[in-house]
Amino acid sequence: MAAPTGPPTTMLEKRAELTPMLRQYLQLCEAHTDAVVLFQVGDFYEAFCEAAEAVARVCEVTLTKREDSTGTYPMAGIPIDNATSYLERLLDAGYCVALADQVEDAAEASGLVDRAVTQVLTPGTIVDDELLDAGSTNYLVAVTASDEDSSVQRYAVSALDVSTGECFVTPVSSLSMLETELDRIAPVEVLVDPAIPTDLPIFTEASWEIDHAESAGIDEAAATERLQPYLSAPDRRLPDPLEQRACAAVLIYAEYTQGDTGALSYVSRIRRYEHHDRLQLDAAALRSLELFDTYGDGSGRTLFETLDQTTCALGRRCLNRWLRRPLVDKAPITDRLDAVDALTAAPLIREQLREGLATAYDLERLAGRISRQRANARDLRSLHTTIAIVPELQSAISELPADCAAIDSLEARLDPLTDIRSLIADAIQPDPPMEITEGGVIQTEFNEELDSLRETETAGRKWVAELEETERERTGIGSLSVGHNQVHGYYIEVTNPNLDRVPENYTRRQTLKNSERFYTPELKEREDEILGAKERADSLEYTLFRSVRADLAAETDRIQALAEAIAELDALCSLATVAVEHEYVRPTFQTADDKKGIEIEGGRHPVVETTESSFVPNDTDLKAGHVAIITGPNMSGKSTYMRQVALTVLCAQIGSFVPAEAARLPIVDRIFTRVGASDDITAGQSTFMREMSELTEILHDATTNSLVLLDEVGRGTSTADGRAIAEATTAYIHDELEAMTLFATHYHELTTLAEQYERVYNLHFAATREGDAVTFLHRVARGGSSASYGIEVARMAGVPEAVVEHAYELVTDDRAESHTAQQTESSSQQHTQSEQSEQSEDSVDSRSSYPEEEFFDGIADPAVDAPIDEAAMVDVAIALRSIDIASTTPLEALTLLNEFRSKLE
Ligand SMILES: Nc1ncnc2c1ncn2[C@@H]1O[C@H](COP(=O)(O)OP(=O)(O)OP(=O)(O)O)[C@@H](O)[C@H]1O
Questions:
Q1: Per the annotation, where are the binding residues for ATP?
Q2: Which PANTHER family does the UniProt entry name for this protein (predicted)?
Q3: Which terminus of the chain has fewer CB atoms gathered within 10 Å of its CB, N or C?
Q4: Residue 210 domain-assigned?
C-alpha cells in the first residue's frame, strides 16, 4: 500500500478552532489512518491537506484551497457521479480509500450533515462491478503462522472473494507450500500475520498488495468469537486455531471495509480443504505450464484461454477454479467427463444451452450486492432475467441422454426459484432507473397505497394539463399558457397586451420582459397535492424496494446454489465445445493398482497446436516408476513434448477431454516442473539457487504417483557440476522416488544411464540437415541423440554470420583440444587405439564432428550396416507371426517395433 496519509497535521494542531465540518473530517481521518478519506460535500468527494495533494497528483485534478477563519487548507475533489475512474487510479497507485458519505438528507439536517465511512476500498475488497474484471476472482487472503517457538512452523491460508462471498481455508505445512498455495490462489491483497517476517522472498517478490492489518494478528479466542455468525460451531468445523484465525482475519477485514455493518451474511459457507484433496501444482508448474500467464512478452496464449469457451462470467470463474485445483478423485472426474461426453454428442442442445447461458448475469456478485443492501432495481431485474433462463436450460438438458448421473444432478440443482422470480416480476418495473430513491422502481398493483398516491398525482397532472383550455375559455385570452419550472412550480402565463383581461383570482408569481406569470388558489392546491403525492410515493417506493431486497437477501443461499449450478453447466459446455473444436478425446483412467503409467497416442500440446500450422502429434508411454531422458537438438520440441504430457494429465483431471487420439492415464497427485533458467520467467533472480531449491522440493515431495518434468536441470552451473547433479538426480528419482519423470537435457552423456538403470530409457527428437539448414521433425523416437545444432539455431535466429563462423571455429578448436587430451591420456595408459585416433582426427571440422547419421536420426539408422544375428532374426520372425494386428494399438506396435530393432541390433 502507498504510505497512508493519516490525519492532517495542520488540522490536528488547531482541532479546537476548526469549523464543525472540518472537525468531522479530522475525526474520520483519525478513525481511518490507513486510508485516504474522501469526504462527501454535495456532489463531490473532497480531500484536504496532504491527502488533497495525493488526490490531485494521482487523479490529475486541480489542487484548490479552502479558506476560513482558522486558516487555508489545500483541497482536491472528484465528482461523485464520475468517481469510478478516479478511485481506480487511487487504488492502482496503492492507496486505500475510505468513502465518507453524507448519511442524512442535507435538506433535513438541522445543522451539520452527518457523514460516515460507508466503504473502505482496497484492492482485495472492492465489490463494485465497475472496478472489477468480469468473470475474474478477486481474493483477499490472510496468512497466519504458528508460534515461533512451536517445534514446526505451520501456516494457514484463508481466502475470501468479497464480491461473491466465496470463502475457503487450508492448512499449509511449509514456506514453499505457502508459496505454492498463494500462487495458486493468485490473491490481490494479502494480510500477513505479524508473526511472519515480511522480508521473506515469497512476500518481497510477490505481485500482490501486502497489508499488516491488525486482523491478521487476531488471537484464538477473539477469532472463535468473530466466526460465530459464519459458523455455528467454529471449534468443530475448524478445529485448528490457525485456520480459525486466518478465516477470522479475512472476514473482519472485509467487514471493516464494507462499512462495519456487521457480519457479511452472503458468506454462507466456509470450505476447508487439504492439499492432498487436489492435484498439487507447485508455483513453478503453474508458471512453466503457462496455465494463466505466459512468459516472455506475454503475447502467447495460456491454457486457460484455450479452454475458455464459457459464455458468462459465472462459468469463466468456475473454469478458472477448476484449472487451479484439478481433482484427484476418480468419481468426480468421471462425473464431469460424463457430462462433457453427453454435451459433446449433442451439438444442437449444447449451442442452445450456450445461447441461454450467454444471457446470464453474474449471479454470485448480484447475490453479494443484494445481501450487502447495495443492489439497485436494475440488479434485481438482472437477477430476474437470469432466473428466467433456468426453465429453458432445464428443458434443453432434459433432452440429453438420460443415463448421465452428472447431468441429472445438474438438472436437479437448476432451481427455477419460481417464488423469487415472481416476487421480482410483481414488484420491480421492467426497466427501472439506476436511482432507487426517485421513484419509477415499483410495479403498479404491488401496493395499494402506492397506487392511490400515483392516482392522485396523475389526476392532479391531468387537471393541470386541462387547465390551459379551461382558462383560455374563461378569460378569452387565446395565448394564455400553463407551464412549470423547478423554482416557481406551476404558473399561468399571460403576455403583456392581455394583462387587462386577467381575472381577479390570479395572483402574480413572476414578472418577465413580455409577460407575467400567475397562480390561482386551485392551481396551488393541486400543485401541493401533486408534489405531496409524488414525494410520498417516492419514499414509499424506496421503502418497498428495500423490503423486497431484504426478502431476496434472505434467499442468498438459494441464489448462490443456482449460481453454482449455472457456473458448472457453462464450464462443462465450454469443455465440450473445446473438445469438439479441437478434436480432443475422452481419457480413460487406470485403477490405482494398475500402475501402468501414462499412455498417450497421438498427443498434442493444447496451446502450441493452435498456433503451429502443422503440429506433429507424438505418443507417450511413460510407465510408472520410469524416467525418460529426452535428448535432441535445440528447438526440436523437447519442452513442448514434456509440457503436453503434463497438460494432458492436467486437462484430464479437471474433467476435460484431452488433445490426443487416445489416452489411458493414472491419477496423478502432483505435477512438478523444474524448467531450465533461460526458459523460466523468473530469470534474473539468483537462478541456480532457485533451480536447486525447486529441485529440492521435488526430491523431497514427489511420490510414485507424481509426474515430474525436468528441463535442463543443472544448466545454471559449470558443465561438470551440472551434469553430475543431473545424473545424481536421475539416479535418486529412479531408486528412491519412482516418480514418472520426463527429463530433457543437452547433457548427452545422460543417455548412458539407460544402460545402468532398469527403468531409465532414452527418447530423442530428430532433425535433418541439408547443407547448413536444419529441419526439425518434431517427432519423438526411442533412443538417444547427441547433436545440439546450437550454432545452426543461432544462425536461424539471425545471429550475424561472422559470429556463427567464429563459433564453428571455436567448437572445432575445442574438439581438437579434447582430442589431444584424450590422445595424451590414451598414450599414457599405453592403449593402442590408432583407429579411434584417426576417427577423431576426422572430426576436427565441427560440422563433420556431428556424425552424418545423427543428422538423419530416425531416418538413417546406424545399425543398418551392422551384421544381423540370425538367431535374433528367427526370434523376431516368430514374434511377428504371433501378433494379432487387429487388436494392436499404434502405441503397442511402436513399442514392438522398437523391441524388434533392439533385438536385431
Ligand atoms: N510437435 C510439434 N509440432 C510442430 N511444432 C512443434 C512441435 N513441438 C515444438 N514445435 C515448435 O518448435 C518450437 C521449439 O520447441 P521446444 O521449445 O519444445 O524445443 P526444445 O527442444 O525444448 O528447445 P531447447 O532445447 O532449445 O529448449 C516450439 O516453439 C514450437 O513452435
A1: 632-639
A2: DNA MISMATCH REPAIR PROTEIN MSH1, MITOCHONDRIAL (PTHR11361:SF34), DNA MISMATCH REPAIR PROTEIN MUTS FAMILY MEMBER (PTHR11361)
A3: C
A4: yes
Ligand 1 atom with the smallest distance to the CA of 617 is: 1
One domain, residues 675 and 760: yes
Q: Is the CB of 635 under 6 A from ligand 1?
A: yes
Give residue for cell 409524488: 534
Closest CA to 355 of 389, 382, 322, 313: 389
Structure confidence at residue 202 (pLDDT): 76
Same domain, 111 and 148: no
Residue 724 host element (H or E): helix 719-732
Report the candidate in 572, 606, 709, 744 with the shortest Cα–Cα distance to residue 281.
709
Q: Quote the ligand 1 centre to 712 CA distance (angstroms).
A: 14
What CATH number has the domain bearing residue 251? 3.30.420.110
Contact 641, 779 (CB under 8 A): no
pLDDT at 827 over 50: no
Q: What whole-number percentage of the chain has pLDDT above 70? A: 85
pLDDT tens figures, 646-668? 999 999 999 999 999 999 999 99
Alpha carbons 587 and 653: distance in angstroms, whole number = 10
The b-or-e profile of 653-667 (16+ CB within 10 A means b, else e) is bbbbbbbbbbbbbbb
Q: Are residues 674 and 777 in the same domain?
A: yes
Judge if the beta carbon of residue 637 lies within 6 A of ligand 1.
yes
Range of the domain at 89: 9-121
What pLDDT is attached to residue 837? 34
Distance from residue 777's CA to the centre of ligand 1 (Å)? 10
Compute the average pLDDT of residues 843-854: 33
Q: How far is the CA of 639 from the centre of ligand 1 (A)?
A: 6
Same domain, residue pair 601 and 704: yes
User: Is the beta carbon of 778 within 6 A of some atom in ligand 1?
Assistant: yes
| Same domain flag for 643 and 775 | yes
| Ligand 1 nearest atom to the CA of residue 618, by list position | 1
Ligand 1 pocket check for 638: Cβ under 6 Å: yes
How far separated are the first and last CA of the chain, in Å rounded? 67
The domain total for the chain is: 6
In terms of domains, do 619 and 511 share one?
no
**Binding site listing:** 632-639
Q: Give pLDDT tens digits for 748-785.
A: 888 889 999 999 999 988 777 676 677 778 898 888 77
CA of 644 to the centre of ligand 1 (A): 11
Q: Find where cell 543437452 sits.
A: 746
Q: Ligand 1 within 6 A of 634 CB? A: yes
- What is the residue with the minimal CA distance to atom 23 of ligand 1? 635
Ligand 1 atom nearest residue 604's Cα: 1
* Ligand 1 mean position, distance from CA 633 (Å): 10
At 562 the pLDDT is 96
Domain check: are 632 and 721 in the same one?
yes
- The answer as to whether 397 is a domain residue is yes
495 pLDDT more than 60? yes
Q: Provide ipTM, 2 decimals.
A: 0.98
Q: How far is the CA of 175 from the centre of ligand 1 (A)?
A: 34
292: CB partners within 8 A, 6+ apart: 186, 286, 302, 303, 304, 320, 323, 324
Q: Which of 70, 94, 121 lies at the terminal end of a domain, its last residue?
A: 121
